[in-house]
Write a structure and sequence with these properties.
- The protein has 261 residues and is α+β, with helices and mostly antiparallel strands.
- Among the domains are: 31 residues; 145 residues, Calycin beta-barrel core domain (Lipocalin, Beta Barrel), CATH 2.40.128.20.
- The chain contains five helices and 14 strands.
- The strands form three sheets. It has a ten-stranded antiparallel β-sheet with strand order 6-5-4-1-12-11-10-9-8-7. A two-stranded antiparallel sheet has the order 2-3.
- Helix 1 runs antiparallel to helix 2 and helix 3 packs antiparallel against helix 4.
- It starts with a helix and ends with a helix.
Length: 261
């Protein structure tokens, strides 16, 4: 568009008087102004630009940690550290509290040490059981959906955001550069941290899950996901009062299906 306007002004000035050239230049200036106002997007400086996490993601088991292998490695490191320093076992006095139950993993509560590393590893394995992630991202918000679990939702602002809080725990999220971080604090000083990163070409997603108990050393588990094209649903379904659930093949107008009943 800009090139066409400039060419027309140039042709008008060829062999024309100065007044014609001035009018042509004025028209070109007005055209440039209108184009810049109507066609260029406005950038909201209050909302930072984020990498695109959106899409369907499938776990790459070959490049993801195996929780049992990671547990063995962690135990070996701790055993080597224990041989270098002596630690006296603390006395566990007082009444024991009910355990924390997440899925099929029960973590004992105590006033002394936190949960042992085996329990943390089993909890990490349970939390990381999902092989598919669906991520929806807009200019203002990102939502990470996992089958059978509540979605992890965070805005794109710079500030720390509290997304959930009740007597069972508190969930907050924040951005560290282009990394998206969720921290879930549960009773008895149990903390779960998810750290999401995506590659520059938006084809590989990495998730680092760290679990802490009473401020001790964390158990870390890394998962890798590859983007894939999720298949379209074969059927479209609606719930009706008179006929219950009515389904048709994808692409079919459901109103014609209802007319056939």
């Amino acid at each position: 568009m800009l090139i066409n306007v400039a060419n027309r002004a140039h042709k008008l000035c060829q062999g024309a008087n100065s007044l014609t050239c001035i009018v042509a230049a004025l028209c070109l200036t007005l055209s440039l102004s209108a184009f810049s106002q109507d066609s260029l997007p406005q950038l909201d400086l209050d909302l930072p630009l984020r990498l695109d996490f959106s899409g369907s993601w499938e776990k790459d088991f070959r490049r993801s940690d195996n929780w049992e292998d990671e547990l063995s490695r962690t135990l070996r490191i701790r055993q080597e550290s224990a041989t270098r320093q002596q630690s006296s076992p603390g006395s566990s006095s007082g009444r024991s509290a009910l355990p924390i139950s997440i899925g099929n993993v029960n973590l004992p509560r105590s006033r002394g040490r936190g949960a042992n590393i085996v329990d943390l590893a089993r909890l990490a394995e349970y939390i990381s059981r999902h092989s598919i992630l669906d991520i929806i991202q807009t200019r203002d918000e990102i939502s990470i959906e996992r089958n059978g679990e509540a979605a992890l939702i965070c805005g794109v602002e710079y500030k720390l955001q509290q997304t959930f809080a009740n007597e069972h725990g508190v969930e907050v999220c924040a951005w560290e550069g282009q990394q998206l971080i969720f921290q879930i604090t549960l009773p008895d000083d149990l903390i779960i941290i998810h750290r999401f990163t995506v590659s520059s070409n938006q084809r590989v997603l990495n998730l680092l899950t760290s679990i802490f108990s009473k401020g001790g050393e964390p158990f870390n588990l890394i998962q890798a996901f590859n983007k894939y094209e999720a298949p379209r649903d074969e059927f479209n379904c609606i719930q009706t009062l008179s006929r219950g659930q009515v389904c048709s093949q994808a692409g079919t107008d459901l109103s014609t299906v209802l007319d056939d009943f």
